[in-house]
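U., I forgot to send this yesterday:
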Amino acid sequence: MCVLSPYTADRVEPIVVAEMTAEGLDQSPLHPEYWHSADGLPYGYSLDAADSETDPSELRLLEQADGRAMRCDIMLHIFVSDLAGRPALGKLAQRVAERTQGWVFVEFQAPPSASLLGHLENAGRCIGVNDYVYLDASAMAAWNAHPAFHVLK
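Result:
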């Protein structure tokens, strides 16, 4: 999952590490880029420039909505296709977005319905682009709790 934040990478990294720890993930002593859940699922993160994978027009849209430039692309990964680990990834993205004042990129299996978009917009801020959205932390919390919640890998 991607979280775009107006914070710089050096400010974001301690937050990401703290939230991964709070999620119950342990950092591998041999390979610090890997974190593992209690049931052994492998997670990780990377920090890049905001424009590393996001189209400039989408960055401008977010920056207009937020009033600040996006400076960091926080990629939160689960390295296996295990559905059981994806809710933790969603919660992690929500908390990182909350603490970094960021926006979570959410892609849907099918175009979201008007009722789902309305639900997310009522919970927080939701910026729709084609068949995906950027959610602030409040809207992401609503997505995490929604019965249709899913994470595309």
